[in-house]
């Protein structure tokens, strides 16, 4: 990440590359003949040219400052999979009674037919605008007449009434780009913090002085004209186990730090944490809600009647809030309704629930603080300067003796001390009513753990009958409890499991500790497995990998520039004991394996043994680190490739004459 102060670059020597837009629909034969091998032979489409400008201007209608952004792009479509690039969505923000205004939309498809360039323009009547939430809207259109080899092009202008966040620019997208260029005109009165994000480097940058770019109150203001260029940009491919793509795509972001008024005097907009602390603690929807312990004062005797120490008190309070205030589906760091109203209506957003939990814990004379964070799909936090709008979730930190526990009562199936996976995203900021705020690591709280014990017997009629007992904790248990809840009943949940195993029948079932969240979820199943080979009745085929079978590698890129973020460590153990008749012998089995990742990053073990007509199979899969660096990616990919290859082998038994 590089922090660039634009105003300090005004006197840089002008570079040779000139910032310039390209003629609309001015397609060349070179572009027409371009193959997808130029950057990525797997590409379904490619950006030929992309150009954008942004500048601060006065709105002629109300004389307010706006950021005016112009965008122009030309894309070549290689095949039908690339047609998706013709479905355009332009996001817009809503700021109270103001909204980003989009104008000058035009789009065209150019095809080369019978030796001629033929254009199909977008019908303006087929441009649609819709409000998607209280704070966002979007404009959509589909570029017409797409064919293999089509070149599409579109441009638009968007004006934003909010100049704090200058228009960002994304160099990287889901298709490769040959040339991406962005020009930012920033008045000398304004100083923005500028961050280059992502693994790729700029091909070129330039700073120029642009005279009299803006006139305010009769005074001409000069601008810095900043040009950023990146070429031959690979596509950003999203893969499993990652946080928000915005964290890793190469992009330029701007945030207003301070500005100078025409009349003189400097105004600082970048606040300190001391400022943020004061604002949050005095906010009616945040700090005031943390202080409402009186709402729970009369309830405490009943809530705490069976408790013996501070930890049991905290668990009792947590269980009460999780049971009595259900999530309404909305998240945020602020209380939406008010803690008292949420308690009375038994419903609220994450702010209502978890700020209410802080008040209840405080009423129980426990030390509870708020921890605000950014969820995994919201992006990482910039710790260089505090921006409260980057936080979108609040949880609770309760301190008991030398230990601290992170709690989220808005997810009622979570055990005490465990956060949902979407919260595991680096660090959060603890907001305390008693002391200054501070950064705190946000971790899962417990290992993701599974254990399977299968004791079975091969009968003389070729059936395998046995009992499978599973023990699950961590996110595995949470996922299963959610699935059971969504299935409406245990019987329906088991029926869905049975449908997923075509050669296996579940004849009996029992699930324990469903509501005892601190205990492992325990499942007991009586299984009947059809194992005979239909063509050779003397042979029995049994896959010991019918449990937690891995058929597809979750890691398929040739290279990955962003971490593999699992959220937490995990462990899965499988133990199988299969008793076979005396007239059967083992003729094939999975290869015994012991492989590991560097620096104790994980291991995979399998072993098959036979003694006294009992086949014992064991498997262990451990991933010991919550996050793997991009440099470890290829090793992790190969690790899974070997596991998948090993799991293709069955235990094969043959009946002796």
Write the layout of secondary structure elements.
Layout: E1 2-5, H1 29-33, E2 45-58, E3 65-77, E4 87-95, E5 98-99, E6 101-113, E7 116-121, E8 128-131, E9 136-142, E10 151-160, E11 169-170, E12 177-187, E13 190-197, E14 204-216, E15 219-233, E16 251-260, E17 266-268, H2 273-282, H3 287-290, H4 294-297, H5 300-303, H6 310-324, E18 326-327, H7 339-345, E19 347-348, H8 350-363, E20 367-373, E21 393-400, E22 403-407, E23 427-431, E24 438-441, E25 448-458, E26 463-473, H9 475-486, H10 490-499, E27 504-512, E28 521-530, E29 539-542, E30 564-565, E31 570-579, E32 584-588, E33 593-597, E34 602-611, E35 614-623, E36 627-628, H11 633-646, E37 651-655
Parallel strand pairs: 2-12, 18-19, 25-31
Antiparallel strand pairs: 1-13, 2-3, 3-10, 4-5, 4-9, 6-7, 6-10, 8-9, 11-16, 12-15, 13-16, 14-15, 16-17, 20-21, 20-23, 21-22, 23-24, 25-26, 26-28, 27-28, 29-37, 30-36, 31-35, 32-37, 33-34, 34-35
Helix pairs in contact: 6-8, 7-8
Signal peptide: 1-19
Organism: Pedobacter gandavensis
Keywords: Signal
Descriptive overview:
With 657 residues, the chain is α+β, with helices and mostly antiparallel strands. It has 3 domains: 2-267, Immunoglobulin-like; 273-441, C8orf32 fold, CATH 3.10.620.30; 448-655, Jelly Rolls, CATH 2.60.120.1130. Helix content is 15%, strand content 41%. The protein is built from 11 helices and 37 strands. An 8-stranded mixed sheet has the order 7-6-10-3-2-12-15-14, with no helix packed on it. Strands 27-28-26-25-31-35-34-33 form an 8-stranded mixed sheet. α6 packs antiparallel against α8 (350-363) and α7 (339-345) crosses α8. The model is unreliable at 1-19 (pLDDT under 50). Keywords: Signal. Pfam families: DUF3857.
